[in-house]
Each structure stands twice: as structure tokens, then as C-alpha cells.
Design a protein that fits this description.
globular; HIT family, subunit A; alpha+beta; 30% helix; 3 helices; single chain
């Protein structure tokens, strides 16, 4: 995709500080990091959203994230833990529409947090959960 910044990085037309690369995926530092060492893992082939991503490449992205996470822990970058985050779609806060997995080094007091809706503490009943599960199973089998 011509206007995709991540595709430009893959093609060498835009700069990136690459930390990992193989034939299917790349990983490079985020230019607007949550914490120093924040890495993005992307597929080399353009996929706007998860549903467009080849499952094998998705698996390779996760394997690369595991390698990067281990590297972060050993690198000397402040990293007492690692959060993985993937936003799929605008409502999920995806900003660049090329699938990407965030690998974020974490430490106590870093200020990064997830905020939950006011209904978070309300647990649905089993019947409601079973109904939703059935809807999802039917959608998966189509």
C-alpha cells in the first residue's frame, strides 16, 4: 500500500530503528513510545486488520514479540515486565491501519494503565454468556 508508513518502512523508504527482522515480520522502535524500548512488530505484507492477516504470519508476529520481550529484559532498558497490545480497528484505538503488535517494557509506576468501563465489575449471568458464546461459535463456523 503506497501511503502506509509501515509498508514504507518494510520497503526501506522510511526510517526505522529495527530490532528484529525475518522473512515474514519486522520489529522496530515506536516513535511515540509508552516507555523507552517500546517496540512494534508488523507483518511485512500489508494487512489492515487481523481478519486480513494470514494466521501463520500472526503466529510469527507473536514469536517475534516473545524474542523482543526477552531482549528487552536482557538489554538494560528499564523493564520489569512486558505488556503486549494489539488494537484492531478504529474503535479499538488502531491509528495506523497495518496490523501491528505493541511490545511495551513495563515497570512499577510507569503511568501506563488500562481504563475499564463503569460496567466492568458487573458479571454477566451464565445464560447470557452461553448465548453470546453460541453467537460467536456460529460466526466462526461460517
Amino acid at each position: 500500500m503506497d501511503d502506509c508508513v509501515f509498508c514504507k518502512i518494510v520497503k526501506g523508504l522510511a526510517p526505522a530503528s529495527v530490532v528484529y527482522s525475518d522473512e515474514k515480520v519486522m520489529a522496530f522502535l515506536d516513535i511515540q513510545p509508552v516507555n523507552f524500548g517500546h517496540v512494534l512488530v508488523i507483518p511485512r505484507a500489508h494487512a489492515k486488520e487481523l481478519s486480513e492477516l494470514d494466521p501463520e504470519i500472526g503466529g510469527q508476529m507473536f514469536k517475534a514479540a516473545m524474542v523482543v520481550a526477552e531482549g528487552l529484559r536482557k538489554s538494560g532498558v528499564k523493564c520489569d515486565g512486558v505488556s503486549l497490545f494489539l488494537a484492531d480497528g478504529e474503535a479499538a484505538f488502531q491509528e495506523i491501519f497495518h496490523v501491528h503488535l505493541h511490545v511495551i517494557p513495563r515497570f512499577r509506576g510507569d503511568g501506563f494503565e488500562l481504563r475499564f468501563s463503569p460496567s466492568y465489575g458487573t458479571k454477566p449471568g451464565r445464560k447470557e454468556m452461553d448465548t453470546i458464546a453460541e453467537q460467536i461459535r456460529k460466526a466462526i463456523s461460517k
